[in-house]
UniProtKB/TrEMBL annotation:
Residues 2-86 form the Ig-like domain. It comes from the Eukaryota. It is found in: Cytoplasm. Keywords: Cytoplasm, Disulfide bond, Phosphoprotein. Pfam families: I-set. InterPro entries: Ig-like_dom (IPR007110), Ig-like_dom_sf (IPR036179), Ig-like_fold (IPR013783), Ig_I-set (IPR013098), Obscurin/Obscurin-like_Reg (IPR052385). This is OBSCN protein. PANTHER family: OBSCURIN, SI:DKEY-31G6.6. GO terms for cellular component: cytoplasm.
């Protein structure tokens, strides 16, 4: 199985408290395994506050809903040995 790499990394975002924010990261192959999103070094799960999805097979997205001051920090996307941060 070919190694999955990050084609297009995360971009820094500035949002207002109470707004939603979406981060996108494109990978080289569809159906990538061993994918993880983190906020401030805490692994994120798909739930009512964090929407994690994949668009067109290669674009992994994380939407943080109704962000607060506690959400300030580094968002990281990892696939295998490759990481992108914003």
């Amino acid at each position: 199985e070919p190694e999955v790499t990050i084609v297009s990394g995360l971009k820094d975002m500035v949002v207002f408290e109470g707004d939603d924010v979406t981060f996108r990261c494109q990978v080289s192959h569809e159906n990538a395994k061993d994918v993880e999103w983190k906020l401030q070094d805490v692994a994120l799960q798909n739930n009512e506050m964090n929407e994690i999805s994949v668009e067109k097979g290669k674009v992994h997205t994380l939407t943080l809903r109704k962000v607060t001051e506690q959400d300030i920090g580094t968002v990281a996307f990892r696939v295998g040995a490759h990481t992108s941060t914003a």
